[in-house]
Amino acid sequence: MTAIKEFFSNAILRFGMRRRSKRALTLVLLLLPVAGITALLIVIYGTILIFNNVTPSDLSESGTLVFIIIAGIHIGFSMLTALGAAAGEITGEKQRQTMDLLVCSQMSPSKIILGKLTSSCSFILLISCAMLPLYSGLALLGGVTVQMLIATYVSVILFSFFTASVAIFFSTVTKKTAAAEILAFLIIVAVFAIWLILALICELINEFMIEYMSRRTFILAQFSNIPLFIQADPGCFLYMIFRLAVTGFEDTYNYHGFHETFVTLIMTPLQLILISVLCVLGAIKNINPQKSPKNKS
Amino acid sequence: MLLRTEELTKCYGTHRALNSLSMSLDNGTITGFIGPNGAGKTTAMRIMVTLMRPTSGEVYINDEAISKSVMDARKIIGFVPDYFGVYAAMSSEEYLDFYADTNNVPKAGRDELIDSLLALVKLSDKKYSDVNQLSRGMKQRLCLARALLHNPQLLVLDEPASGLDPQSRAELKTILVALRNEGKGILISSHILPELGEFCDRVVIMNKGVKVAEGSVDSISEQLGEKAKITYTLIDDSQFDDAVSIFRMNPHVGEIIRDKMTLEVEFKGDDLASSEMLKRLMLSDIKVSEVSKTRLSLEQVFLEVIGNDGN
Ligand SMILES: Nc1ncnc2c1ncn2[C@@H]1O[C@H](COP(=O)(O)OP(=O)(O)OP(=O)(O)O)[C@@H](O)[C@H]1O
Ligand SMILES: [Mg+2]
């Protein structure tokens, strides 16, 4: 409990929150009418559908679809926000020449980075709260469950934390925010792409094996529904967690089986968390003048 | 000893910006850290305040190696860099409050602390002004107040007087002397000696990364060797060569410059030695109409040492 309290008394975190809260408030004020209008449209849309003898199950299906589209936008937007905010955290300090003042204060490098990281994600928290009315508006259509809401928020937290960690790492490496943003963006895209590329290579090998040896490669044999390697892709995690939320555990498990379900649901987040932790540790080391390799000669 | 450095060396690539600097600083003293541009002052100071690691050597604060206990060292050090970093749209009060947070200054009594520091640096009336709109001198003073938030025992100031008008400089001096009298140890850098000479208890003179001299201002001139210029005005044009050869025999004589009928002789000996030289001129029947001896000021000595070293 004291640890949590101490964490939230982090000077940089509180400072960043205070700075952002002004901007965030305007955004929330902007989002509220948007949410209201969306909710109204959904009600009108729903009413029309009902008067056209559409069954509730059709309606709830479209509700689910709209929810997933909006959730996708929410996740993507959170990632971009995290990227932009975190990439500028340390480069901004360097440009304002305030970095040294922080480093030689009594905040340890890890406190500085964790404060910065949380502060850059605080904006997302506010956006996510602002999204709640929109989601509840959608619930009027039906087809929206608490599980789906949980899936959305788990993904937002996981993916924004991942993006912010990568971005803050590059923020400690480069001098310019734009450079940090681009590098972080490339790395994030690479994490998504690498598994797809591996899967593609695997498929090509497979084709080759079928063509010339008339059998599949041994590793591919046991996975039928999703090509190998795509399971470890962060994108596949999104698919799996939403499928789980929409169709339930049993259906998912029966269709995908033990390997696919668990590799995706456990290994993918672990992979993202591992990269995030490495990035955060790297960033902490980079801003520590007593450890930074830049200062050695 | 509050601060002691041992053989500090810092290389940037192949460039040796700091070469085996050993110096020390005690409580209740102001030490001037003087050297021309590129002497390595900022480099040395950044190492002392834990913002950089030396290539070799060690800094001791209260006889603790800072590489062993960085966070402890930071509690004792207050640093004013040679630039003024600040966030946009922030008042002096918010500025100090934020850095009080980062320095673990307790919330209780913080308002009073901020008020008293603002009063110390004569910025009480700027408490709610935007820091970006303060004048340079005010920013320097605010920066000093920031460095004092956690009541550090050692203050390291990098060129705090640069760009200040004489009055602001005098004010800064008064504040520093008051802090010294409280028992704090202060290290202050500058590239102009007179700026510091009058109120520093000790000075360390640097050039090209090397310590040239260290000690009280008075003892420095001794260390650097007392230097004077003696000007002899001769009457007879044909006697110049004889005079020069007499000067050359004297080990205290440095450079000799002829200007029309005068000879300007750089002289490192004492008064007795110079009177001895005059006697020799007389004995050789060289006709001297006028002699004058001018001692170099400390600043001139300093410039000369650095100049000789530089070429
Ligand atoms: N980051 C750096 N990378 C490479 N060389 C550097 C770096 N910082 C300083 N130097 C070099 O080290 C030497 C000492 O620089 P330093 O800034 O310590 O001098 P200084 O005494 O503070 O000078 P000034 O009076 O101009 O502030 C200079 O030759 C400088 O070019
Ligand atoms: Mg300097």
Give a brief description.
The complex is a heterodimer of chains A (297) and B (311). Chain A is mainly α and 297 residues long.
What does this molecule look like?
The complex is a heterodimer of chains A (297) and B (311). Chain A has 297 residues and is mostly helical. Chain A has one domain. Chain A has ten helices and no strands. The two termini of chain A are 43 Å apart. The model of chain A has no long low-confidence stretch (mean pLDDT 82). Chain B contains eleven helices and 14 strands. Chain B is 37% helix and 28% strand. In chain B, α4 packs across α5 (136-148). The A-B interface holds A 11-12, 14-15, 19, 96-108, 289-290, 292, 295-297 and B 10-13, 49-53, 55, 67, 70-71, 74-75, 77, 79, 81, 83-87, 98-99, 101-104, 146, 150.
Instruction: Report the largest inter-chain contact.
Output: A-B, 24 and 31 residues
CATH class of the largest domain in chain B: Alpha Beta
Average predicted confidence as pLDDT of chain A: 82
The CATH architecture category of the largest domain in chain B equals 3-Layer(aba) Sandwich
Bound molecules: adenosine-5'-triphosphate, magnesium ion
SSE order of chain A: HHHHHHHHHH
Distance between the termini of chain A: 43 Å
Q: Please state how the strands of the largest beta sheet of chain B are arranged side by side.
A: 6-7-8-3-9-10
Overall shape of chain B: elongated
Largest sheet of chain B: 6 strands, mixed
Structural class of chain A: mainly alpha
Query: What share of the residues of chain A does DSSP label as strand, in percent?
Result: under 5%
How would you spell out the order of helices and strands of chain B?
EEEHEEHEHHHEHEHEEHEHEEHEH
Number of structural units classed as domains of chain A: 1
